[in-house]
Amino acid sequence: MDLDQDLRELSRVVFFYPAIDNHAHPFLREERKEAVPFEGLISEASGEKASKDATYTVACYRATAQLAKLFGLGPDADWETVKEYRNGIPYDYLCRICMAPTRIQCILIDDGLGSAEKVYTYRWHDQFTTSPTKRIVRVEALAEEMLKRAIQAQVADGGLVPSKLLDKFVTGLEAALSTAAADSEVAGFKSIACYRTGLHVSVTVSLADLDEASLHEIERTVTELSLIYMTNYPLRLAHKKINDYIVNATMRIAGEAGKPVQFHTGLGDNDITLRLSSPAHLQPLIKAYPNTKIVLLHSSYPFTQEAGYLTSVYENVYLDFGEIFPFLSPDGQLQVIRQVFELAPTNKIMWSTDGHYWPESYYLGALQARQALYEVLASSIKKWELTTRQAIGIVKRALFETANEIYNLGLEP
Asked: Residue 263's closest CA among 225, 326, 227, 310?
């Protein structure tokens, strides 16, 4: 065995094999490209001071160096220099120099982040890939839209009747979920229950299973939301019984259609209650819907080992290792990848960029993930823990094959 030759072969596959980005978000429109602080590229921190603090992280120092190299700015370029340069070049050129090196063949886009006025449509991103972009439907956003329609219909009919409003909302939501599930453009669904009410989702097959008091509580909440919406305030569903129902309806309909449901887990901004973001809270839901594929997003960081456990013992659970690129330091990323490999079957793990708003997020998400995969797997080969063939198989499954299979994409690399 020639170790150097084996490592060269591993490097070739890791850095050049096509990838399916199984979870990402749209780019900002050119006219809105400075609408969101660029510091969101390297941190989930919010607020001016927190965003400024993020520029002092090891993750930011690394991202700065990598972007400076991409832009040809030299080794002494700092964060502000990178920002000034990227804001001054043509947007189309920026997008293309960031996307070309990623070797992303297909993107699955959750288009529920950002308004239509702020971000591009999902199919706009086809220009950067060789296979068509597919949608991931964010179910809380869909539910909010269906509630708005139910409210508008009731108002047009002359007034709000709580029981009828709830019935119209439920009927409309389940019809919309079924339509999405049958749509070939939709690869799967995503829930952000983690942000809204936490991952301790109660198993509720239908609202008919609730006791009378709980049903009245939901009717009252929907009526209150209607009044808020009618006074021109944003409508945001963050009421546990309603959000739990939305998740359960999604799990049932997605399972019947054979489409996966992604869950935001772990890493997020300060809108999350950290202790309720562990995927361990999803265990009752996982058991209740054994025929529905569940994808735990964002490495579930800092709960990666819990996610690995669930992936190993439940046939319907898969683990995504994304968003940690570029948010974590290089050593932190390696540690997370090692934790993913501790227990999770390697045919049940998938990569994503969680790219959003800025093309640089796709660039860094791809570059750093490939670097981390190579370092961890090369180390295992050197220690005789893996053969080169096994390591290459892990890479191909993580970057392409597993996502291609569970999202029924039917692609060839």
From this structure: 310
pLDDT at position 200: 97
CA 256 to chain CA mean position, Å: 22
Strand partners, 28: 119
Largest CA distance in the chain: 80
Q: Work out the burial of residue 103: count CB atoms within 10 Å of its CB; fewer than 13 is exposed, 13-18 middle, 19 or more buried.
A: middle
The identity of residue 381, as a single letter, is I
C-alpha angle 147-153-159 in degrees, rounded to nearest 5: 105
| Beta bridge partner(s), residue 104 | 19
DSSP per-residue codes, 6-63? HHHHHHHHHHHS-EEEEEE-PBBPGGGTTSS-GGGGT----SHHHHHHHTTSHHHHHH
Tens of pLDDT, residues 181-212: 999 999 999 999 999 999 999 998 777 777 88
Q: Which two tokens stand for residue 205?
A: 């097959």
Q: What pLDDT, in 10s, does the model give residues 128-151?
A: 999 999 999 999 999 999 999 999
With a threshold of 0.70, does the pTM exceed it? yes
Tokens encoding 115:
């308004």
Q: Which amino acid is at 186?
A: V
Q: Concatenated DSSP letters for 343-368?
A: HS-TTSEEE-----BSHHHHHHHHHH
